[in-house]
Each structure stands twice: as structure tokens, then as C-alpha cells.
Amino acid sequence: MWLSLKKPIIGLAPMDGITDPAFRYMVDKYGHADILFTEFVSAAALSQRRSRVFSSLIKHQTNTPIVLQLFGNNPDDFYKAAIYAAGLGFSGIDINMGCPDRNISRKGGGAGLIKQPNLAKEIISAVKQAIKDSGNRLSNKPLPIPVSVKTRIGYDTVITESWISNLLEAKPNAITVHGRTLKQLYHGKADWREIAKAGKLCKKENVVILGSGDVKSVSDAENKYLKYNIDGVLIGRAALGNPWIFSGHVPSLLKRKNIIIEHCQKFMDLTPENNFLALRKHLVWYTKGFFKAAQFRNQLMKVKSLKDVKLIMENAFNI
User: Does the global pTM surpass 0.85?
Assistant: First the structure.
């Protein structure tokens, strides 16, 4: 899948609590990103089939590749989770080695794996083995499910070259590098020179390399693709309330009003058991550029239903 994507690959970055099925649908419909990622899913929870993770696995009908991202610190959990995920129709499985959340990293997951290079390789190998075993069981042939990694340039110091070289020993199909260390979280500027260093190493091994961090637009992504000699870019925070960012076309405020309502409806259609209140943050992000945006934000942070949203939108546009 990775090698078949037209370059530059410009996709939606995985974001916890954000890239849920409804948001992926909106980005796919209005932005036409080249690839989509789920929010990260606990490998331990999925390996034990805990119901709380199942809503993240829901996919809308699309030809756009959707990659499932897993996090954790136990190779056996990853193996069991990947065995289950292999039959769900995802275009790939991505391993989170970049989440800076302290609750996760201190337990050795997310960016915490940067401090455990051997364990990181074991996890990649476990996922690859699970896909191989699933193929043998389901069809007696390998499944076309690539394994990728999303990571950072270091834990508390920059160690891009040694860290990426370590990951390449496990032969993932693709690596996405966010240009900050865990210590930086999302502060300061992403260091794209370090991403370029990772790119040189990956290209020697025929591994797809993507960069992420501070990308503001498609034109910005295309410039970074050319300047830093990588295969593509993932856009994260700039897509919040802005699912059309990948198309380069900004809809009118009236069209955005309809998009907001559609997002809420799709949330209920795809994940009816999820709490509607989870949409509030998306609704607030959508208000950027609205007249009296602060007033709308205050109202939208109190909504409890689609009916509430429609009423606020109708009043806003006097419709």
C-alpha cells in the first residue's frame, strides 16, 4: 500500500480522541486526504476484546486507505491485537512510538519506547508475525497489510539517526517522524532537518518516510516534501475544525454550517453508543472565522444533542 501511493503522500495524522470514525469521514469527504489514521487504540485492550475500543475500529465506506494505530508496551498484546485487526479490513497497522502523554510514556508505551530500542523492535516483529500468521490461517498466503511506525526524534535529547537506524533493523514498511522530542511535547518548532536525516536512512532501506509537525496547509506540506526529500507529510492540528484542509478549498460560512450539522449526524450514525458531548471540541474548532465566534463557542460547549446544534446554527445564520 505505501509504495503504491502517489507522492507526495499528504494524509491525516492520528490524534487521540480526535480522529474518530466521524472525523475521518469528514476529512475523507471534504478534504480527500491520501491516507487516514485512526485515533490510537490500546493493544492491550484490543487483545482482550474490551468493548470500549471497538468504536475506534469502525470504518466508513471508502477507497481511501485507513490505517489502524496501536499503542502499548507488550509484544504479546500487539501480537494478539494485530491477529484480531488483520481481519478487519484496515489498509495497514501503525505502531505509536511517539505519544508524549506521561501516563503512557512512563509505562513504556508511546514515546517511552524510544528509551527501549530492543523492545521497540520486538513489537514491530510481533505485529509483522501476527499478520503473517493471520494470512496463513485465513488464506494460506501473506496478507497485504503493511506495518508502520510513528515516532519522534528523541525522548529528552535528539537521537534521530541512532533511533531510526534501530527501527529500520525491524524492517517496517513506513516510518512517520514528528520533529520534536518527547520532552518538547508540542512546544517550540518541529525540527525538519532531523526529519530529513531520518529520510536519508529510510530511503536507503526502501522504507517510506513521512514527516509531521507544524504543517499549516497543503502547500506547506508540498514545500516540505520537496525541501526535505521525504515521501510525504501528515497534517494534524491544522486539520482541527478544518477537514477540508487537504483540498485547499475553504467552504463558505453557510456551507460550513451544513458541514457542522453533517459531522454531528455522521457521529451518531457511525458511533451511536458514543457520548455526544465528545463532539463539543470539534464544534468549537469549527467556529474559527465565524462572526462573534466567542459567543458561538460558549453556546456550542453546552450542547447535548443534534437538536441543540441545529438550533444554534439556525440562529447564527438567521435561517
Answer: yes
The whole-angstrom separation of Cα 261 and Cα 266 is 9
Residues 19 and 168 in one domain: yes
Residues 39 and 152 in one domain: yes
Residues 194 and 273 in one domain: no
Structurally, how many domains does the chain consist of? 2
Structure confidence by residue, pLDDT tens digits, 97-156: 999 999 999 999 999 999 999 999 999 999 999 999 998 887 777 789 999 999 999 999
Distance (Å) of CA 295 to CA 106, 278, 279: 39, 20, 17
Q: For the residues of 121-180, what is the DSSP string, one character each?
A: HHHHHHHHHHHHHHHHHHTSS-----EEEEEEEESSSB-HHHHHHHHHTT--SEEEEEEE
**Look-up of cell digits 453508543:** 273
Using DSSP, how many helices (H) and how many strands (E) does the chain show?
A: 12, 9
DSSP three-state, residue 279: helix
Q: Which of 186, 216, 246 is the last residue of a domain?
A: 246
**Residue range(s) defining the domain that contains residue 269:** 253-317
> Using H for helix, E for strand and C for coil, what is the string for 40-68?
CEEHHHHHCCCHHHHHHHCCCCCCCCEEE
